[in-house]
Structure formats: C-alpha cells, structure tokens
Amino acid sequence: METTSWSLHMLSEILSAFSTEDPDNLRNVLNRVAESVDAEVAAIICNRSIDWCIGLSEDDQQLLLEELNNQPSDITIRSGILRTCWAPMGPMDLLFVGRLGERFDLEERSLLRAMARSIELSIKMLRAVTSEREARKDALLQATHDALTGLPNRRMVLDRLQAAVDHLSVDSSLLTAVLFIDIDRFKWINDAYGHSAGDQLLIHVSRVLKHVVRHDDLVGRLSGDEFIVIIRTSHRDDAGQLASRIIAEIRQPVNVAGSELSHTVSIGISFAHLGDSPSTLLENADMAMYQAKALGRGRHSTFHSTMRLQAQQRISLEEALGNAVQNGEIKPFLQPIFRLDDKTLTGFEALVRWQHPQLGLLMPAAFLEQAEDSGLIQEIDMCVFASACAVIASWQQIHGLGNLRLSSNLSARSLADPRVKVHIKEILESTAINPASVYLEITETTFVDDIESTTATINALRDLGLRLAIDDFGTGYSSLLYLKRFPVGVLKIDRSFVSGLGKNPEDEVIATTILTLAKALELEVVAEGVENEAQMKRMRELGCDYGQGYWFGHPITIEATDVAFIEPLRQAPLIP
Amino acid sequence: MVAESWVQVGASSLNDTGQALEQALQALQCPQDPKLIVALLAPNFDLAAIAEQLHGTFPHTQVIGCTTSGEITPGGAVANSLVLWALGGSAIEVSTGSGQGDAHGLRQAATEAAHCLDHLEQRANTVLIVLSDGLCGDQMDVVRGAYDVAGIDVPLVGGCAGDYLAMSRTRQIHGRRVMTQAVVAAAVSSDRPLGIGVSHGWTPAGDPMLVTGSKGNILSTLEDKPALDVYLDFFNPEDIVRTDPTAFANFAATHPIGIRRRDKIEMRHVTGFNLDRRELILVAEVPQGALAFLTEGNFDSVLNAAAQSCISAVEALNGFPPAGLLLFDCVSRRAVFTEERVHEETDLITSSCGAVPMAGFYTYGEIARTKGAGGFHNQTLVTLAIG
Hints:
By secondary structure, chain A is of the alpha/beta class. Chain A is built from 21 helices and 21 strands. Chain A folds into three domains: 6-142, Beta-Lactamase (2-Layer Sandwich), CATH 3.30.450; 154-303, Alpha-Beta Plaits (2-Layer Sandwich), CATH 3.30.70.270; 314-571, EAL domain (TIM Barrel).
C-alpha cells in the first residue's frame, strides 16, 4: 500500500500547480495550497496589504494584518483558533496559511516555505511574462494599426492581401476584392474646418466602413483619406453592391466641428488573381478609384487593364513634362488686362502653355494636375514668372509703359516652399522689373492653406515690394482678416459670377458684394472672363476697376502680344 | 419560547407536471408557509411551470431546485419523480441567490450565488446549500467560487444537477427563473444546530500513482503512462468497455479514482474517455502532481458509508433530534446498489436516524466543505441534518 511520504506528495502537487501561462492561475494555486494541507485559509500578503485571500472575512483579514508584526502561531477568529504558518516570500511579502485544528508540523512548515518561494518566483515570472506580452502586443498594435482610427494600417493590409492571394492557390472558389476608398475633397474639409474636423471625419468614415462590412472583412486605412476594404465573396457583383452601400452610408450628413457636412467617397475596385502582388492589387484599385473620381465623384469603378494604360500615359506625360521645363517647351502666354472706365491697357496676366513637340500646344488642364502631383509645378511657376518678368521689364522701358503690370500665378506648392522667395528675388533682380508692378496671383484656397507655414513666405514677398492678387475670388472662403493682414492689392472676381451677369440675379449680388468689400478694404478688382461688351459695361457700372477676358483678348505668345498690344503703343502710348 | 424548525417532504411520481406538483404540495402538509423549498425534479417535468406555481402557492417562500438523476423520498429511492423538501420554523432564516455561468465554468457563478449570504440574517449556525450544473466545467470551481464568499465560517453542502445520465443538459431553479449552466444557492441560518456528514466507502485498490499529466478534469497520464491504458490494464474489464463509450461510462461508475488528501481520500467519478489521446475524463479536477489511487468498493462498504454519513450528520446536532435530512447521493452509488437493492440505502438511513422527513437526489457530484478549503466529492453521500 501507500509508501510515499505525504509531505513529498504535497510538495509535488503544489509545485505542479504553477503555470506561467495563466496569470489567473495564482488564485487557484492559493486554493491548492490550502486544499493540499487541509487548511481553511491561505493568503498572499504584499507590502503589508492582502493581495489574495481565501477563507477569511474582511474583519478577520484585518485581524491578520494587525498580527503581521508579531506573526503569532495562533490567531483566534470567530470559527475557532487558527493555527498559522507565516512563510516569507522575499523581504516584504508573505504566504500565510491557517488551519483550524492541528498545528502545522515542522515538515509542513518547511514545505510551505518552499511553496512560498515558488509562488514568489512565479509572481515575478508572471509579472515579467505579462509585461513582456503586453509590450509585444502594444508594439504589434502600433506597427500594424493606425493610431487615429485604430484600423489596420498599410503594413497589415498588405499582409492580409498577400495571405488572400496565397489562399487562391488552395481555394479559388471565393473571389478576393479590394475596395480603395478615397474621401472626395477631403483637403477642402481639412482647410475649411481644420485638421481636428478632418480627423473627426476620418474616424466617422472608419466607423461607417466597419459598420457596413461583414465581420470577416478587413477595413484598413492606408494613409490620409485613403481607406481599404478587403472582402471575400462568391459573386463579383457583391463588391460593387458593397461599394454602393458604402457610398450611400457615407453620403448621409454628419456633424463635424458643429456643422452638418454631406460628403462623398469615390471607390475603386480590383480583384485578386493568382500571382498578383499586394501592391499591384492596391495600385489597380487606386487607378479604378481615379477613374471613379474622373466620372464625377461619389461613384465606384472597377479596374480594367485599359486603366493601367491610361495611368502609364499619365506617367509618360509626367516624364515628358520634366523634360519640357529643361527643353524650354514651357512658355508664358499673355492675356491683357484693361481698365474698364477708359479701356486703356493696364498689364498682362502670364498664363502657362506647353509647346509639346508631338502633341502641339497643350493647355494647363492637360498637364497641371501631373505638375502638381510631381512637384514640377514649382519649376513651371518660376519658369513662367522669369520669362514674363523679362519681357514686361523690357516693355516697361518703353516710354509711357513704365507702370505696365504683370500678374503671374503662384501655386500652393510654390507658396509653401520657403525657397521660393529666394528664386523670386533673383528673378526680380536679374530682370530689373519694377516689383511694385508685379502681382502674384494665388487662389483663395492657396491663400489660407496652412496659413501658419505660408505667412513667412508671404511676408517675405511683401518685403520684396510685391503684391498679391486673389484669384477666383468668391469661390472660396477668404478671411477678411487675411485680406487686411497680407499685402493683397487685387481681388479677381471669378469668371462664373461674370458669366452669370444679366442672367442670374444671385451672381450679380455676389459681384456687387465683392466690389463693396473691395472698396471698403481699398482693394482693386479685376473681373475675369469678360467675354462680351454687355458684361464689360455691367461690370463697369457696378464699379469694377479692371477687366480681363476674351472680349479684350485671348492669351497669346509674347511675340504676338508684342505685335498686337505693345507695338501700337510704341507709337502712341495709352497708359498715362 | 424555544425557536423551532421543521422539515416536510412531498413527492409525486405522476407524469403530468401539474398533477405531480399538486400531489406533492398536498403531501407537504406544512404547519405554516415554509422558509425554503428545494425542488428536486426529474428532467421530464416542466420546470418553468413548477417554478411559477410554487411561487403562486408560496409567494413568500424562497425556492431553489434542479434536475436530478434520480430522487430520494422518505419512501426510498425513486425515479422520474417530483420531490419538494420544505424547511420552516421560527429558528430558520433563509436567503437565496444564483449566478449564471458559461461553458468555461462556474466559479464566478458560484461566487454570485453565494452572495445571498450577504442578505441573510445570521443565527447561531449557518450553511450554504449549493446546486450547480453538473455538466459545466470543473466542479471544483463551484466549491472555490462559493468558498470565496462563504469563507471559513459557513460550511457548504450540495450537489450537481443531473439529467438521468443523458449528459446533455441540466437545469436549475431560482425563484421563478429556470436556468442552465448556472449555480443556485440557499443560505440557511438556524438557532438550532445543523449537521453535515460525508462518507463514501471506497478504498484504494493498489499503490498510489503520481498524476504526471492533467489539466482541469482531463487526466492524461499516470506515472507518465497514458491514464486510460493504466486504468484499463489495472481493472482489465471486458473488451466492449475498452472501446464503447456507454459501456465504459457504466463500468467507470463503479470504478472511481481517489485523490490522496491529508487525512482522507477524495473520490473522482470517471465520466468518459478520449480514445485517441488515451485520456480519462473526470467530473472534476485531478491536480497534476497529486497522488491518485484506483479504488474499489463493494455493496456493503458503499452501503455502510450511507449509514456513516447520516449518523455523522445527526451526531453533529449535539443531541438535538433531527427535524429532517437532505441527501446528496452520487449517481454512481445507485449503480453499485442496482435498482433492485437501491432501497436498502434509504432503509438503512431510516433505521440509523429514525423516521425523519428526508429527501434528496442522485447527483453528478457532491459538495461538502466542513474542514479545509476543498470540498468537492464523488461516489459519496453527503447528508445535511437539520436540528
């Protein structure tokens, strides 16, 4: 029959009870310690407070703490005399075991001390393991999730896409579809309401996406306002239907920064094929998304191989554009600006054109988007500005044309670049143009875009003696404060209001309002897009200072301008 | 005036729920409204209707109950019956509670149920009666969860609800609620003594073995050998037991495993096996590192244990005559007695304790914590005697 020592068995059982895999296990260990020695009470006391205790009421636990310094061998509680064993766990902590009835003998006490040491080591190990686990979990979360929305980030999206493509070799019964979702005009929302509002919108969109998709689908955020949804489905149409649902859900007005905003998303869809790389799938969906935007935003479009061709054409155009600046194919065309009250020539706006060696003359719409995206816009801005300054400066030498004005466009990207003031200064000095006659046209959007970082540039331009003209005024949201704070000399009324004169009463009200505002701020006003005499007369009646448009003259080459507008003035100057 | 306590039992074997309850209620013959009714019910009854009707009949009485694997009445062991054990009297205070568990276990549920002690007006002696879902998790957790609240001062008794060995679902009643995967409890406090007896009658059949691999109620290895093989090699049952789950369960019901404790052996009922992994499945934890025995018992030793359990409970009343008994008897013991001779157990209890009102049920595990922190048993008769 039984020959094994009871105490040896007890030690064996208790030491086996420790498991570092389960942090809650310590609670059970305490039960097992008590159960193994037939004790009613077991407690772990850390820093003079009871971390875990079984068997004792709160009052009796207090009694235990009061006896902590004395560590008596008996404690009288309501149920009787508790025989005690106090086993140290390191310098500060204790394992307490209490039993009604028999005292712990020497062997039991020595074993309980061994147990206490084991618990001490286990607690330390558990803490270390738990801490390590949490650190790893946090690191993984940060590495794989977006901090703002909590959604999986690009890295995790790419991992999931790779897994989805790999799975196709095992099971091709389900399609993997990638939905590339881009918030339309997100930059505008960010600009108009601030980045905090933009963040709110991103969080809102992420919630909508998570709500719309199924549990197993993945919603991720790639960057900025770009989201991704990965679904597995048996029907190709499901992806389009999901895209439609997403668009409809996100179209619902949402309160952002105290305003009801209704916004749209454009969605591109691509389907995974065996051998696809995750980045190819994303690119395809991205291209489809651009197609959706081109169709008019708030739509979805599915990738087709022709889109890649179009994208490649765009890239080819971008490469050619880079060479165009070097090859002198970028040229300024000039459009005259006339004073309305006496129809005298005031100056010119320099407008960019690309003299493409194969495609002929390209208008800005054909290449400005690529120029903006690629950053070439800054070179183009300076190229046009330098050429225009040179010719206007030469014309200013003509008697009577000393005040001939030049308006030249400055893109948002140029304005945001601190080096632009250096380039402009060099051009002004090399061409010797009178800075007071130079107006740099910026759009309203550009004007307030990241105002903090552009303020220094605008001030530097003012110091050079330049003035600003606000292009497309009335379509944006210029703050009156900015109009007063910065060296704004001219407001240009957008052509959309001018074309509505005599037809749309609202346009006339807006034009009148802008003129009243300009007068109050002592700014000059140029009406853009004047295409007929009636518009010219109406603007003049409303008090507008200058006009620009086809009725006065189309944008033409420098040489043609010289012939059409300057040469006659060499004979009889019109400008006082 | 001396505070008194009383127990009444009513039972019925009628099939119809309404008729059975009516018959059992008529048999109760309570002197006044009981403080507590423990309803012990075969699984075929409509428990919701019973709970509702008990509330309608005794709106101020606390009710707990559960399904069983056989019921015990003063007339003996019965089956497919409805039994009401009613406790009352001026000496008695009762509060009840329940906790909903889940497939992961019942520790928290037991803790929640035991918090009924917080609302109890405590008299001289208190006991917590616990009824748990015997098919849910490790039943050691029920004792540990209840002990977290009851502590050293309040003993625990109780049993695990059964379903006549269908092993599919048990149910518990608390008030008008019918639950599953739950623990229900009644805290009983009395001015008069309460006694608890525990006995099983099993003895080790061989040398102790070290439990080298176990997790919860899964016993993987004994002395580093597959536990199922060790078990079958030792008992050498007929071939069908080695492969057929039902035959194995029937065999294992009378061949439990014992765990060495300081001054006793705690029994563990083997409920099944995993043929592929060669593991034994038990109703409760066999701690890794513990010493385990394969045990044996015979009709007489198991029967005598019944008398021992009841006598111990009654003796604990310190001379007070028992007002009634509540029995928690392992379903496996019933298998040892066989249906033909199962009445001998209750006959022996009656002859040992006198004709006191008694009721009970056959359980999937018994709870009795009177000493130490543990208290989950198998193959055991636990007796609660009301003084």
